[in-house]
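Schema walk-through. Below, the input block comes first and the output block second. Nothing else is stored per chain. Lengths vary across the set, and this one has 430 residues.
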Amino acid sequence: MGIRRLGRVRVTAFAAAAASTMVLVGVVAPVGGLDAARADSIRDLEYWLADYGFRQAWDTTEGEGATVAVIDTGIDGSVRELQGAVVDGADFSGAGSPDGQTPVGESPEHGTMVASLIAGRGTSFGSGVIGVAPEASLLSISVDLGEGSVGSDEQIAEAVRWAVDHGADVINMSLTRNSLDWPESWDDAFSYAFDNDVVVVAAAGNRGSGTTEVGAPATIPGVVTVAGVDEAGNASLDSSSQGITIAVAAPSEQLVGVVPGGGHVLWGGTSGAAPIVSGLAALVRSAYPELDAANVINRIIATATPKGDPVPGPIYGYGLIDAASAMTTAVEPVAANPIGDLAAWIATYRPSSSTTSLETLVIPAPSADPSSGSPGTGGPGAAGPTGSSGAGVYNLIHWAVPLGLLLGFLILMATFALGAVSHFRGLLRK
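--- output ---
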């Protein structure tokens, strides 16, 4: 099964991003007619900064101390808006550079656009693209998921583990496998992330790119699945798939991003909605360093503005994100991830994960009192203490052997009787 980045693309002379086997979720078009004298117009296009409370959230934190791993086509960390943002990286495609900062694949600009939405630094005060968590650090992890790429499932599993081992607090995945299920290698990789307190964010997918329903990794229990909305906050007809695993919704249309080399593009898709939520997760981790991943996620969904019916629902999840509220609202703590437990899912749906086998299966002994369920009697649901199984077997043998002997004796006597009767009748005929 191939993996696709979740992106819608409008092909232009400036940039093109084509659909590939694992979908990138974004649409690209150049921002035309903006020269250096009008560079502040780029910042003016970022409507989500004010509309979704990020400017207010920055009064609390800008994401300092939080690290977001971007598993994508690689980040060009040399562009002005991302200089100093990328602190480490790796390549799992075999086509990139060891630091993950050489864009790869059929849509090489995708990873840089995603990164700029998370942690763009701008180019000067009030100009250039600024991310929703402009002081967060980035890990650039390049993977090649396009048509003809080899081992995309393995690339993802290895990339997730690398991100965890290199300090990621949040992992952003703007891609889809285009299937509800996922390989068992992902069980291990994503469990590793959850066990190490990492928040994983994934794009829901785009109906306009043929992804009609949410696909893995957005179907994995515990992953924060992000739907897309238009500028009015309504479900995007082209930029958002539906599914019961959707956690929240975020802007996915008329997004502005940076591409390798430093140009700016307008783009859309849940590929853009996901990094906005990843950036919000970085803000929460920075503002509340004592929270574990489950409570970071809980704070994001608990402070979302409810939308749709029901809530949570398959279109908006718990609602539209609210960064300002996520920074300041009192939220009751939770003991477990509110959007799912991968370990429980594996125990239920992966037969190979069971620790019980035919060799270790214990069948309890019969009970002398079938109505009893107390330990030691062999009642329903009770394995009984050591020795109860032997007693049950002994009782069965104790009664079965004499009964068997008696039955055999009776059969033998009946045979002799029939023989005697037959012999007697023979004598009478003579």
